[in-house]
Structures
1.
Amino acid sequence: MTPFHEANLRGNRRPETPIEALMMAGIGENAVESVIELQPLREAIAECIEKLSDQDRFVVDAVNSEMISLEELGKRLGVSKPHAWRLRNAAYERLRLHLLENPIIRERLGLEDTTDNGGF
């Protein structure tokens, strides 16, 4: 890995374009995906999150963005820590199901599309 590439990864800087990604890659290394290349995936994930109920969105956002503890989540929701754990797990499961229904995410994961092949 080149020093330029290492410095950018340490700084969490992702290349903006596919060309910049190629320029950042070292010899013999695969280029990381650029911001432009990741945009459809980001939009697909956002759509799946929008399909969640308000409570599930709150739970997913609080745990992932704010990185709050289950104890704090329980306080915010007015429930016990074990119940917050169950709510978190249920929200993640519903999000997982929405993600697996999305064709962009299915393609990204390399999952076969069985919706249009007549059962074969």
Note: The helical segments are 3-10, 18-24, 35-50, 54-64, 70-77, 81-101, 103-109.
2.
Amino acid sequence: MPESSVLDPQAIENLRALNPGDNDEFLREIAQIFLEDTPKRITELDQSALTGDVEKFTRAAHSIKGSSANIGATSLRAAAEKLEHQSRVQGIAGAADLVDQVKTEFVRTQSALNTLIGK
């Protein structure tokens, strides 16, 4: 799948504009933080779903939504937003499909970011 369908090109350009002329060093740093942190939030989703901790689950979904928006991962942001909304409105019972969608979108985002930053 093309990188542009996973990552918002404007968001990437906005990140580049924050530190122009650095040869994408800032972008690579932000991407690396995102790539290291998001799996931890996904683990929190899984663990809090098992323990029934709706508050922790919702916080993890919210965190994924925010960091995805910052990096321009539009599909991942949308999936996390749905998950956060569902957990706030209906709790976490029946959220497994949305968690799977978040995981799938993260893999796509991870691949696109690794291609973008030359990993």
Note: The radius of gyration is 15 Å.
